[in-house]
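Input sequence (413 aa), recorded before submission:
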Amino acid sequence: MFSNQVSPIAIDFGSSSVKALQVTTGSTPALVAAAELPIPDTVRLQSEQRNAFLAEALPELIANAQFKGRRVVCSPPSGQMLVQHLQVVPTPGLDDNEQIAAMLQVQLNCSPSSLVVRSEHVGQTSRDGQVRQENICFAVSRDEIMRYVEMFKKNKLSLVGVHSEIPMLLRSFDHLHRRDADAQVNTLYVDLGWGHAKVAISHGTSMVFAKCIQLGGRHFDQLVSDSLHCDLDSARKHRIRHGIIREDQQPSNGAGRSPLSGGMAMLRVGMAMNGQTEATECDDQVVTEDRRDGRSPESLPVSFGSGTPADLHDHVDFSELLESLSDELSMCLRYHNAMFPDHRIHRSIFLGGESRQTGLCHHLAHALQVPAQLGDPIARIRNTESMPELFPSGRNHCGWAVACGLCTAPTDL
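Predicted structure, token format:
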């Protein structure tokens, strides 16, 4: 009854919370229902305890939110998903997925039948004089998929799609690439989560790079916990209250700015190479312009200091973690530049719950020398004011990108 009017129930199994979202279909989606379930610290990193908690808490979450229909699409947590670039030699009679599964069998010492593998074709590369196909591989244990199928089945729900988080991040911003010229815009997506950081690079809507970095908010929390001798919950509250980065120069936005529009808030880096602004005509057309109403997004500080690690009561030094994260992101850009030397990155979009600490985004954007924005995929969805407890007015909802992408994902399970 509802399949032609509303999306399936999109469920993002994140590392620190579960987000469920349902919207109407069409070019101007409206909120149907939404819910969020925080995952206790005590079970976040314990697989069996986490599964038991979800099996008990998820039915009530779904029932109370008044979702429509029984169809579900979901995204497993990044810790359960292998994301890797693989090069395969084109072989007649074998498709890329078969070759990738065989390569993973050797790499992971497992049967190909024990994995569910999907791949995204990137392009051709050459190594040792041999042409190879560059692919982004997404693989998850078949047992994990069946666990989700059974969990939903017990609650009279039908799982109709399972997708990796990273492609869903990109899908949530497909609406920014409607014009032919938008295919020429190259975007770096950085999802800063509690468990991991996820990175993707797209040319238009085509994904050409993906990686999951084993660094997230929990590593900063653990550092605070070890330094201040407190539990993780207290450490997280300290970190959020005091921040990771101290902004030495942070001019105010000024009065009279328009509210956030188009799901973007600019964090344009105020230090372009050779004294030139990093924005080109292409940037001006597709980055700063909100094509729905012609307004420019509200600017955050155009000029900001590089930032120094904040010292919580002079006891915590974040510099090593910040350097590691910056280095990982820089390596992602170098890999992309080696594959596509003529494709400059025009912008970066920061997502994930940890990106609400804008000082961290400032620091990373400064290190990468790429114009940066905070992404808010919820901003284009109508009727969110009906749920102010989940989507408070005036705040960025950067942690909902995966759920938004799932709402329009294929139902091909």
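Checked by second reader. The mean pLDDT is 83.
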